[in-house]
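Lab notebook, design round three. We kept the backbone fixed and only want residue identities now. Task for the bench partner: fill in a sequence for the structure below.
Input structure tokens:
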């Protein structure tokens, strides 16, 4: 995947902090969608690492934890040689691309909030 190009689509932390809650939510949704599009363009399913990090990013997005969600979505872009598992046994469950897109659609329907 093209980590550098995808990361370049994100605003700077200062810019992001000035966004409304709705714009933060939309920015994170667009970032996750771009990652899913990149995986799909490679004509492959997400691997266990990508699957778990994107699922975590979606959960954090649903909780309106926008910065943390970006962090996990960014982790999904790590090259295999730079990956450090969060916990032992990580990678045993793999969400399919369709499941991740369904999760994104569900989260997209939620209302944004500053908490």
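Proposed sequence:
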């Amino acid at each position: 995947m093209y980590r550098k190009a995808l990361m370049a689509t994100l605003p700077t932390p200062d810019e992001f902090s000035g966004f409304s809650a709705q714009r933060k939510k939309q920015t994170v949704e667009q970032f996750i969608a771009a990652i899913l599009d990149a995986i799909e363009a490679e004509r492959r399913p997400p691997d266990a690492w990508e699957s778990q990090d994107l699922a975590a990013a979606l959960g954090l997005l649903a909780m309106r934890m926008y910065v943390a969600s970006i962090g996990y979505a960014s982790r999904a872009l790590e090259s295999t040689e730079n990956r450090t598992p969060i916990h032992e046994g990580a990678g045993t469950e793999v969400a399919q691309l369709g499941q991740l897109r369904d999760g994104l659609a569900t989260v997209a329907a939620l209302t944004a909030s500053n908490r």
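Keep this in mind before ordering anything: Residues 21-41 form the longest helix (21 residues).
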